[in-house]
Amino acid sequence: ISSKEAKLGLYTMPITITYGDRYTTKTQIETLGIRLEGKPRLEVGIETSEPFRSGVTGTAIIKIANKGTADAKFLTIQLLSTDKYEVISPYKDYIGTITSDDDETAEYKIYVKRNTEVGDIPLHLSINYRDSYDEEYMESASVNLRVYSKEEIGRMNLTKKSNLKLYFVVLIILISSYFGYKKYWKWTSKK
User: Fold this and answer.
1) What is the pLDDT of residues 140-160, one digit of tens each?
2) Among candidates 154, 173, 147, which has minimal Cα distance to 50?
3) Cα dist. 102→37, 67, 137, 176 in Å?
4) Are 76 and 127 in contact (CB under 8 A)?
5) What pLDDT score was predicted for residue 153?
C-alpha cells in the first residue's frame, strides 16, 4: 500500500535475499522495480450556457474534471455536430494536462437548428488523452443542453437584461448638467 502523497512512476527498491542450508548461508542483494500507477477518471458536464432556442446561436462552456488518481495529458476534446445542432466555433479544442483533482473548460459556439424541439438535446463529445505512461485513451461522452421555447425564456426571465434605461437616464443627467452649467456660467459672467 502506497501513501496518497506518493507520485506515480517507477521506483526501485533494494532487497536482500538470504538463503542456505545447514552448512552455508548466502546473501544476495537485488533491485526490485515497482510501478506505482493510477488512472485518470474524467467527468464531463456543462458549466454554463446561455438560454438556447431553436434557430439561435449561443455559447456553451463544457467542463472536464479529472477525479482519478493520475494526470490526463495531451487532452483534446471534440464536439460533434448532429441533426439537432451545428458547431460554429472550432469543434476541436486542445486542453493539455488536467492533473488529478482538477478541471478545465472548453467553450463552443453552437447553432441550434430550426425545428429542434424544446427539451434536452445531447451534445456528443469525443475525448482523447494519454496517461503518465503514454498509454492512449479515447472516450465518448454526452451532456444535455436545454433548449427553451420563446415563452419559457420570457416567463423565466432568462434573456439578457438591457441597460438601455440606465444609459438613457445617464444621458439625460449629462445633458441637463451641461445646459445647467452653461446657464450658470452666462449668469455669473453678466455680473
Assistant:
1) 999 999 998 888 877 776 555
2) 147
3) 18, 7, 18, 54
4) yes
5) 78
CA atoms within 13 A on the CB side of 178: 6
What's at 80, amino acid-wise? L
Report the distance separating Cα 8 and Cα 37, nearest Å. 5
Which residue in the block uniquely carries the three cell numbers 424541439? 117
Q: According to the 3-state scheme, what is the secondary structure of 26-91?
A: EEEEEEEEEEECCCCCEEEEEEEECCECCCCEEEEEEEEEECCCCCEEEEEEEEECCCCEEECCCC
Portion of the chain with pLDDT greater than 90, in percent: 41
Longest dimension (CA), the chain: 127
Please identify which residue in the block is written with the cell numbers 492533473. 99
Strand partners, 119: 147
Query: Is the pLDDT assigned to residue 190 strictly greater than 80?
Result: no
Check whether 116 has a pLDDT greater than 90: no
In this prediction, residue 2 carries a pLDDT of: 66
Phi, psi of 37 (to 5 degrees): -135, 160
Going by C-alpha positions, the residue among 111, 135, 126, 118 that lies closest to residue 42 is 126
Q: Partners of 29 in the beta sheet?
A: 16
Q: Tell me which H or E stretch contains 172.
A: helix 164-190
Q: Residue 169: in which H helix or E strand, if any?
A: helix 164-190
